[in-house]
Specification:
The protein is an alpha/beta fold and about 325 residues long. It is about 45% helix and about 15% strand. α5 links the parallel β3 and β4. The structure holds glyceraldehyde-3-phosphate, 1,3-dihydroxyacetonephosphate and zinc ion. The site of 1,3-dihydroxyacetonephosphate has 14 residues, from β3, β12 and α11.
């Protein structure tokens, strides 16, 4: 058993309480490779932002669970080296789908886990989430549950329609499971194709596509039912159009990739939403930079020459999210 506290990591309890109180959100960035992790830590350390490092089941399979855990431990030391005296870094399991995978993460040094029972019947979601909470809390590990279904792919679970969270269920769910935070569904979804062009309107000022509004009324109703309770927003990439354009300019084929407008995330961050999940934007920033180097310097074959620019581009993106969207700079 490795306790996360021995690795210099923290759980989400205190950082979420401060974020809800302070009207900002903590960035939860997915990672599965060294360059992403370096970029996240550099952005968080230089802006002094608390940060959540998220590992999905897919990332565990890709990079090896043990290696990822040691990388997170290394990230704490790297953050200190960068001059962040008291790093506020969480290592979080994203979309855990069984009790066993949550237990395995808790035993290997994770400070927070998500148990995603959102696709299960309500009572089964409660039962599974409660079981994970009872185990996790013995080790002061915090637990995120989910109510409502997001459209798109959630790890290996895929759904082409969403179901908004029912605000009538949240008190019962939070009370009976004892979870520390709750992911809700208000119209965001995973991946780079969150909306079809047909669902969007054109902003006459910018010519950009504007997606249908998120269900902020559902968020408000949830907040009224559970005042001050930490709420999580998945599927919150904005799909920066300049990255999409760069990818397509240099041989990519991303058609009509549309994300969540940043203004909406800014608004959400001011509410009880205290954790905002971003993965796809980092993938786009990495791919754009790599494609550009490949196209402009076809003779280059040293990975550092294309992964370096990819890392720089991701760091810029993370810093932008922290400073200009989530409002978490200077909070750690
Ligand atoms: O929720 C989905 C995350 O973006 C993780 O994606 O399962 O492809 O690693 P992944
Ligand atoms: P995006 O695909 O919008 O980045 O969402 C990531 C996410 O919710 C991870 O759990
Ligand atoms: Zn998610």
């Amino acid at each position: 058993m490795v306790n996360y506290k021995d690795l210099g990591l923290v759980n989400t309890r205190e950082m979420f309480a401060k974020a809800v109180e302070g009207g900002y959100a903590i960035p939860a960035f997915n990672f599965n490779n060294m360059e992403q992790l370096q970029a996240i830590i550099k952005a968080a350390a230089t802006t002094k932002s608390p940060v959540i490092l998220q590992v999905s089941k897919g990332a565990r399979n890709y990079a090896n669970a043990t290696l990822l855990r040691y990388m997170a431990q290394g990230a704490v030391e790297y953050a200190k080296e960068l001059g962040w005296e008291n790093p506020q870094i969480v290592l979080h399991l994203d979309h855990g789908d069984t009790f066993e995978v949550c237990k395995s993460c808790i035993e290997s040094g994770f400070s927070s886990v998500m148990i995603d029972g959102s696709h299960l019947p309500y009572e089964e979601n409660i039962e599974l989430t409660k079981k994970v909470v009872e185990y996790a809390h013995q080790f002061d590990v915090t637990v995120e549950g989910e109510l409502g279904v997001l459209a798109g792919v959630e790890d290996e679970v895929s759904s082409d329609h969403h179901t908004y969270t029912n605000p009538e269920e949240v008190i019962d769910f939070a009370t009976r499971t004892g979870c520390d935070s709750l992911a809700i569904s208000i119209g965001t979804s995973h991946g780079a194709y969150k909306f079809t062009p047909e669902q969007c309107t054109i902003d006459p000022a910018t010519g950009r596509m504007v997606p249908p509004p998120l269900a902020f009324d559902v968020l408000k109703a949830v907040e009224e039912k559970l005042p001050g309770f930490p709420i999580v927003l998945h599927g919150s990439s904005s799909v920066p159009q300049e990255e999409v354009e760069t990818i397509n300019k240099f041989g990519g084929a991303l058609k009509a990739a549309i994300g969540i407008p940043e203004e909406w995330l800014r608004e959400a961050a001011k509410s009880a939403v205290c954790k905002i999940n971003i993965d796809s934007d980092s993938r786009l920033a990495m791919t754009a930079a790599v494609r550009q180097v490949f196209a402009e310097k076809p003779a280059e074959f040293d990975p550092r020459k294309y992964l370096g620019p990819a890392r720089d581009n991701m760091e810029k993106l993370y810093r932008h999210k922290i400073e200009n969207v989530l409002g978490s700079a200077g909070k750690a």
